[in-house]
Task: structure prediction
Amino acid sequence: MQALLQQLQDIIVSVAQTELLPRFRNIGHNFKADGSFITEADLATQQAIEKVLTSNWPDYAFLAEEMSSSQQQALLQHKQAGLWCLDPLDGTSNFANGIPHYAVSLALLQAGEIKLGLVYDPNRDECFSAIKGEGAWLNGEPLAQQQAPLPQQAAIGLVDYKRLPEALAQQLAAHPPYRSQRSFGSVALDWCWLAAGRAHVYLHGRQNLWDYAAGLLIFAEMGGCSCTLESEPIFNDTLQPRSAIGAPNKILFDPWYNWLQQAKHAAE
Result:
């Protein structure tokens, strides 16, 4: 797996630097049926990565964001030896508007588990990666362990308000249980930054498999705690969009989870 991870890192870094960086600030965008952005860079990056992966690992199938939902569903239901799960440009809205915060996210799914994950941020040249049960890395070096946990009142929260139930979002805005809040626009990097200790509590109302698969594994390999707003595991080997609660350790996770559950029930 370590050799595979290094091969994948070389592929993803090369494609991102070839297909994404030269197009940044130099490209227009269109809108998909759901109103989200899509650019030439999304499609070019996906095509380049798919070509290399299917050539080198023909036994593994390939699922990516810029496919039809019927194609995605068929791939996930048919159990292959392995399934690549790619978001070629996580943070397309940022990319399309000239905000340098986006990433390529790639995961390998096997036997109903996320076995390997890689998230590359080409602007910072940071490649986060993980192998299930073996740890997580940043640019090939072990990802640093968290410092002593902060109290929740001193924490930075990564919170995406847009996709939350309205009543819960209003309670968070009016009575935040953390010191300050951020929302950067890339789910994959959210998970990696949590794993790296750059933020301390997390909440997102709706993320897709290709958004979270790689980052969630990186976060989990650093000992992070997570679940959905319904108290279920986030990854369930389906295409169902998932809410996400997270924190790097139980000292932060438990009061954050409890606050959210109380706020959620109060709003019902």
